[in-house]
Amino acid sequence: MNQASRRPVLLGGDTSSEAARSRLRSCQQRRNSGQWRSPGKRGRAPRREEQEWSRSCCCCCRLLLAMPRALAACLFLLPLCARALALNVAAEDVKDRTEQLSQTSERSGNSTKISKELKEIVFVIQSQRNSFHLKKADDLKQSIFKQAAVLGKEMPTVLLIHQMDKHEGAWTILPLMHDFSVTYSRNSSWFFFCEEDTRIHLVKLLKILEGYDKSKEYFLGKALHDDESTIIHHYAFAENPTIFKFPDFAAGWALSIPLVKKLAKRLKNEPLKSDFTIDLKYEIALYIWEKGSGPHLTPVPDFCTEDFDSPNAAHCATTFANFLPLCGDPVKKTDIFVAVKTCRKFHGDRIPIVKQTWEKEAALIEYYSDYAESSIPTVDLGVPNTDRGHCGKTFAILERFLKHSPAATPWLIIVDDDTLISISRLQKFLSCYNPTEPVIIGERYGYGLGSGGYSYITGGGGMVFSRAAIQRLFASKCRCYSNDAPDDMVIGMCFSGLGIPVTHSPLFHQARPMDYPKDYLSHQVPISFHKHWNVDPVKVYFTWLAPEQKDFQDGRKHIREDL
């Protein structure tokens, strides 16, 4: 299999003691003389982060010379140092290029024009209320402002979706079109939407938007399409699913003001009818297309999901931070309790798949069934099995976690017996979340959000709860209205009533890999998939989720043969 990965290289790749001493002397001399330079940046003073990184490198070399056994630790730490440096340098590089282009514009008398055009773009960051996501959204907002400051005094409008949620459906965007039209249509030309991890090069973005007539209805983005008809899109366009294009939110997408005004008028006359929000990017494109009477998505090759430092991203106005979130040390395996929902009829075919694939990754795991079978073993919760919904069983699992799991265990994940998951990636992912906050994470769906409904985490991809969230739930009176009620929806309704938002992550998947566009998955580090139907689940696990074989170096993805 052809795999592209960045392996950690220790200060030039030679780990011998003599080489380490040589690199140490060179590093010290350059640091002490103030001559540190990063590649491609000769002739300027060293930045603070470069000086700090060089000192760290020297310290690591000293550690190698003093304690050879620390080699493995250095090999682990150096990529993290390099990653942190790369992020800072990339941000500075954008600023450097912006300044250069701004100076060129000033000499040609175009700086006022650029500033004016920038003012005509309304940026909308698809943010969330969780503290980790708030920080990422604010970082992106500040990046936009810093670049704008170089270009002129007129600052663009930057909106955060989570601050606009008069009702819970703000994240679905279409309910906001009326406010967008009324508030911004007079002085704006474009709305540009992006995710928290999207990186934007303002000058390049301006140049791209200049190429489209702002007086016409335009829907711009990086085009995705289904390779085969899929359940998450209700098997639409079954004869040729590739013909319908929808945007990859990670690359950013844009609507011209005439289209925003048209959508606002249509929504006023014809309120949204769909009960469920499942795949927002697809559903927005479908609504805009309006059965052929509205505009198709116009593909923009310069809206990209390449990583910012990829050689393929030189032309890109947008890039994407396509790595697994990691905020310090991964959480311990013993900090995650795994609950598997099953029933007697699946003990013989589904449970062996779990044991053959990901069970060994979990330190704390129990199987909850309607029948106690010691060979697995399963726990009979005393709740009759139901053909659907399973709300009674799920609430019994939540209560058992509070009463019987170690009090020091901060996280619970509930999965189905046909869920495939990477526990090692989940450990890294959860390092970015505070378990003392009420946190519920997974793939977010919506119900009735056009008319005061609620969001929920769909169960098949896995529902992650902090202990604090479960405690808040049981302190309330919200419970299942029947044992066969849809557990994930009832839980979503309960937390909505408590004012606790669910947190979306696209790394959890309710369906199989084949149900998602290949290009969409290509910039992800998936945590879970769901369903064994018409696939080899063992192959899916070892292709997409297994540690080591398909895991990621420095948080970056391998390139898969099947993509």
Automatic annotation (TrEMBL):
Topology versus the membrane: Single-pass membrane protein; Single-pass type II membrane protein
Polar residues bias spans: 14-36
Family, as annotated: Belongs to the glycosyltransferase 31 family.
Gene (UniProt): B3GLCT
Protein's name in the database: Beta 3-glucosyltransferase
GO cellular component: endoplasmic reticulum membrane
Database matches in Gene3D superfamilies: 3.90.550.50
Annotated segments matching region Disordered: 1-47
One Gene Ontology biological process: cranial skeletal system development
Positions of transmembrane segments: none
Molecular-function GO terms, alphabetical: O-fucosylpeptide 3-beta-glucosyltransferase activity
Compartment(s): Endomembrane system; Membrane
